[in-house]
Design brief:
This protein is of the alpha/beta class. Helices cover 34% and strands 18% of the residues. Helix 2 runs parallel beside helix 3. It is globular and about 75 Å long. It starts with a helix and ends with a helix.
């Protein structure tokens, strides 16, 4: 069965804003942090060219930020600097050469867009920070508003000069124009605040002016939020009316709709992680059809496969489906589908390490695809090994599997030893946790990929120094995971590792009172808390740092904390156990001299990452062996970093 037969709607061409796209899949605009001095780079070109070559119909390039007050991170793109035209033209030329069409997003980030480079405060309609403790924005005057309006027009002109075929003005996601619309961020008492009509005035003025000035050269659409998903913001009814009025502006060419505003935890819903079902806000988006008439309607949010995209298109209300994270994970998603190789598609498991990098002001990357942002340095097909070697990989977890796959694909003679009876390592247990089932998709993909190579796989094979030496491999990839550390809590002989607790029958936890001593701050701790609570336990999490689960990316952490609260999980940040006395834990509080107690505990769990396999590495190196530690064997760190370790070593051998 052909791809066109399986997904007849996906592979239809579609006319939007004066161009005919070859299918109904688009790449939504998303910040990459690839810019230098706010200007485009070759990394933008390489990254977007590869996704255009992969077959998407339309690419919407990341936001051009209007006005100096909106530049924010140094890796973002300036829309008001004519030096950007040449670099943007290189992007549009590259995308068009691969058969895709190319639009761009235009925005001002407003109150959450601090300009760290110029040390300018954020601007907003009112002096209301985006989050408690956030910088207080400068409340814009009419003169400021005029300057930003001119910058929107100037940016649209630059986009037209650079060869873009369309642009979307951002009226959603809590950016500046959305801030004017929302009563949660707009408390002005002039003609631009108060009533709904007043709050609509400036966003409509910007939209109308840009269309009047540049619309004949560059079709203009709008990006909107279907619902702010925040208290005091624009609910679904208000968002519907905002979209209806904006879409009615003469010259608006299309509507691109998703959810949320830039606030905590709303923006976490905008990048729904694996705890959500596919296309979780589809029903709300479909209802916009009534508001926009016949205009093309685009949408995105956790479409991880063409099958899910087909479902969205089958509603008859949506015209194009955005698949951003899925194309980070595998830019050949469409190519492989056409070649009847869907089983070989590297799945997006929506773990959100990608956007998590943006929160740290780093270039985007992908847990499933470490090549993101390195397309030129790490070609799609790994370069064959100049001198094939025998490679022994010790450990079949994610880091070991990735290293073995890449090394074998390059032509090395790879042997993998795994102590357990199946591949996958920590993914096997992690994928059984509440909202984490997609980790089994990751495991299954890595195993299937490795078995397609000539690698020799040995299960139930434990490794010791003598056995490794006897193998006489040219290179040993040490992927054994971390070495556990004993607890130092007085009276803690009964502590149970969370891994052991998760292996119990789910019914075991019904009605039990559980405390998790969290030393790792990782997904493992968060997953254990949610899973045991979902299974019926009363769960308390004790953790010394101020922020619980500090090593989980901020976007997933926002919504996870919301879920834990709904499950009744109690979080005690800033506390640590002084001692354990039977079913009672005595706690120290870093902010107070007074101790506190948790009584009646049935089970006390500990979540610790342990330490790297340093001793084994030293002993092997003493035997003259070339050892390459990866993942937690190198040092305990995240799944994202573990896969990157494995990939890098596989390419370096």
């Amino acid at each position: 069965m052909t791809a066109e037969t399986r997904y007849p709607l996906v592979f239809q061409s579609f006319d939007i804003a004066g161009v005919t796209v070859r299918n109904r899949i688009f790449l939504p605009g998303h910040t990459t942090n690839f810019a230098e001095d706010f200007l485009p780079t070759e990394r933008h070109v390489d990254y977007l060219r590869e996704r255009a070559a992969g077959g998407v119909g339309l690419i919407i390039v990341e936001p051009l930020r209007v006005h100096r007050s909106s530049l924010g991170r140094s890796g973002g793109l300036s829309g008001s600097d004519r030096r950007a035209v040449a670099g943007l033209k290189a992007i549009t030329d590259a995308v068009k050469a691969e058969g895709a069409h190319v639009f761009v997003q235009i925005t001002h980030t407003g109150r959450h867009g601090d300009n760290f480079v110029d040390r300018l405060p954020p601007w907003g309609p009112s002096a209301v920070p985006w989050i408690a403790g956030g910088d207080i924005p400068h409340a814009m005057t009419r003169k400021d508003m005029d300057a930003v309006l001119e910058a929107f027009v100037e940016t649209a002109e630059i986009a037209a000069d650079a060869g873009f075929e369309g642009a979307e003005i951002h009226l959603g996601h809590g950016h500046l124009l959305h801030q004017f619309l929302s009563p949660a961020s707009n408390i002005r008492d002039d003609a631009f605040g108060g009533s709904f009509e007043n709050r609509m005035r400036y966003p409509l003025e910007v939209l109308q002016t840009v269309i009047a000035e540049v619309g004949s050269r560059l079709p203009i659409g709008i990006r909107v939020s279907v619902d702010d998903l925040m208290e005091g913001g624009c609910d679904e009814a208000a968002s519907f009316e905002i979209t209806r009025q904006a879409a009615a502006v003469p010259g608006v060419a299309f509507v691109n709709a998703s959810v949320a505003a830039y606030s905590w935890p709303s923006i976490g819903h905008h990048v729904a992680d694996m705890s959500y079902p596919a296309h979780p806000f589809l029903d709300q988006t479909v209802r916009l059809r009534e508001a926009i008439g016949d205009l093309p309607l685009l949408t995105a949010n956790r479409y991880t496969s063409l099958a899910e995209a087909e479902e969205g298109l089958a509603t008859g209300a949506i015209d194009l489906i955005g698949m951003n994270r899925a194309h980070m994970a595998d830019p050949q998603l469409i190519v492989k589908t056409r070649a009847r190789r869907e089983a070989d598609i590297r799945p997006c498991v929506s773990n959100n390490f990608c956007i998590g990098q943006i929160a740290f002001h780093r270039p985007i990357s992908c847990m499933m695809n470490p090549r993101v942002g390195k397309e030129k340095a790490w070609p799609l097909v790994p370069e064959p090994a100049l001198q094939p070697k025998s490679v022994l990989v010790i450990g079949g977890g994610p880091a070991g599997l990735e290293a073995a796959c890449v090394a074998a694909e390059r032509g090395h003679d790879v042997t993998l030893w795994e102590a357990a009876g199946q591949l996958g390592g920590a993914l096997n247990l992690a994928g059984t946790c509440h909202g984490r089932a997609d980790l089994h998709r990751m495991r299954d993909y890595l195993e299937r990929r490795l078995r397609q190579t000539n690698a020799a796989i040995h299960l139930d094979r434990r490794a010791d120094i003598a056995a490794i030496v006897e193998q006489e491999a040219d290179v040993v990839v040490l992927a054994t995971g971390a070495v556990a550390q004993p607890s130092t809590i007085p009276g803690s002989g009964g502590l149970m590792p969370i891994e052991a607790a998760l292996a119990y029958d789910p019914d075991h936890w019904v009605g039990r009172k559980v405390c998790i001593v969290d030393i790792s701050g990782s997904w493992a701790s968060l997953s254990a808390a949610g899973t045991l609570a979902e299974r019926g336990a009363s769960v308390t999490v004790v953790t010394r740092p101020d922020s619980p689960f500090w090593d989980v990316n901020i976007y997933s952490r926002m919504t996870a904390l919301e879920r834990l609260a709904n499950l009744g999980v109690e979080l005690l940040p800033g506390t640590s156990p002084r001692r354990i006395d039977g079913g009672m834990m005595i706690l120290d509080n870093k902010y107070s001299a007074a101790e506190s107690r948790i009584k009646g505990l049935d089970t006390i769990l500990v979540s610790s990452r342990g330490v790297g396999a340093h001793r084994m590495q030293v002993e092997l190196e003493a035997q003259g062996i070339d050892v390459r530690p990866v993942g937690d064997a190198l040092t305990p760190h995240s799944l994202f970093e573990a896969v990157h370790d494995g990939h890098a070593v596989g390419r370096a051998i």
